[in-house]
Specification:
Number of domains: 2
CATH superfamily of the largest domain: Gcn5-related N-acetyltransferase (GNAT)
Largest sheet: 12 strands, mixed
Number of strands: 12
CATH architecture of the largest domain: 3-Layer(aba) Sandwich
Order of helices and strands: HEEEEHEHEHHEHHEEEHEHEH
Helix content: 25-40%
Number of helices: 10
Organism: Cereibacter sphaeroides (strain ATCC 17023 / DSM 158 / JCM 6121 / CCUG 31486 / LMG 2827 / NBRC 12203 / NCIMB 8253 / ATH 2.4.1.) (Rhodobacter sphaeroides)
Strand content: 15-25%
Protein name: BioF2-like acetyltransferase domain-containing protein
């Protein structure tokens, strides 16, 4: 695998093959992200996901996938499947003046939410195409904002130059002692992920079979890639899993062996960024949740973008959730 880094001032243009995200090569407003696509939802939530639909003139103009989770004390929550990191309404209002389209979109979103089953809680992170959450506010829901880093496609040399010197040096050193491959089997990746989480003394959010299922589904469709870095002794130092649609490539999962620094992961991320750039896709780091990952991701350049979160819960749900949490603490040895 070619992991060379441009050093000359006149780098050749990077070829831009069409993204594998859509057979037509066009963005589908009813599937704005990979997380909205039926096959991904099936892999993420094999126990069942649902969606609300709005039709006009015998065609679907809006859809909102969701999943109902059972909670303690008979409560329910409307959320996203585990591996659906962004969702929210997908709307295709059709042609028309901008003002008319905006009104149509608002009405479609309103009708989508009105069809959601009653639950004690709702939590959904909106995809990058959602820039207006006023309809959700009208329904009495709360608005939060998460953030993510994005690197837009462009000249590879410019992307490299836009990174921190420290990050570039870390990648250079990692390149000298690690071998990068994209042939790691999903089961081996999942086993490595689980082993590293256990050795770190943490509880894994994902089950091994869940990781295998989504990785396999993406690889079979040419929509995902597992990158791994092995050290001089042949041992697996780090691995990452990325997926993509017609507009963006998402940094979904990562793992590194105990005792390894961020060098191998940085090297893999650089290769993933290059791969996304060759496809003409935005590279999305998929969220900023801690100070640590903000500092780490900032080293790769890019810009911060907001992701709106729509949420709301009843008093009963909040009370039972607090009670369940308290009881769980009491049961701990």
């Amino acid at each position: 695998m070619d992991l060379s880094i441009f050093k000359n001032a006149r780098a050749k243009p990077v070829p831009r093959p069409a993204p594998a995200g859509a057979a037509s090569g066009l963005h589908d407003p009813l599937a704005p992200t990979i997380f909205h696509e039926a096959w991904w939802l099936d892999a993420s939530a094999p126990d069942g996901w649902s969606e609300t639909l709005v039709r006009a003139d015998n065609r679907i103009v809006g859809r909102l996938p969701y999943m109902i989770l059972r909670k303690p004390f008979g409560q329910t929550s409307c959320e996203m499947p585990k591996f659906a990191h962004f969702l929210g309404p997908a709307v295709a209002p059709g042609p028309g003046a901008r003002a008319n389209r905006a009104l149509k979109e608002a009405q479609i979103v309103r009708e989508l939410h009105e069809q959601l089953p009653p639950t004690g809680n709702l939590y959904m992170r909106m995809h990058r195409g959602v820039t207006d959450t006023m309809v959700h506010a009208e329904a009495g829901l709360h608005m939060l904002v998460n953030f993510t880093f994005e690197i837009a496609p462009g000249c590879e040399q410019a992307i490299w130059a836009g990174m921190r010197d420290k990050t570039r040096n870390i990648i250079r050193r990692a390149q000298e002692k690690h071998c990068v491959s994209d042939t790691l089997d999903p089961r081996d990746f999942a086993a490595c992920y689980r082993r590293n989480v256990d050795e770190a003394g943490h509880e894994s959010y994902y089950e091994t079979d869940e990781i295998v299922r989504v990785c396999t589904a993406a690889l079979e469709r040419g929509r995902g890639r597992i990158l791994s870095a092995t050290g001089p002794d042949g041992g697996l130092a780090a691995a990452i899993f990325t997926i993509w649609d017609a507009t963006s490539c998402y940094y979904l999962l990562a793992t590194r062996s105990r005792g390894e620094d961020h060098g191998a992961t940085s090297l893999l991320l650089w290769e993933a960024i290059r791969h996304a750039n060759r496809m003409g896709l935005i590279f999305d780091f998929d969220g900023l949740y801690t100070r640590g990952n903000r500092v780490f991701f900032t080293g790769f350049g890019g810009t911060v973008h907001p992701r709106y979160v729509v949420c709301g819960s009843t008093r009963t749900y909040r009370a039972t959730a607090a009670l369940s949490k308290a009881l769980s603490r009491l049961r701990r040895p």
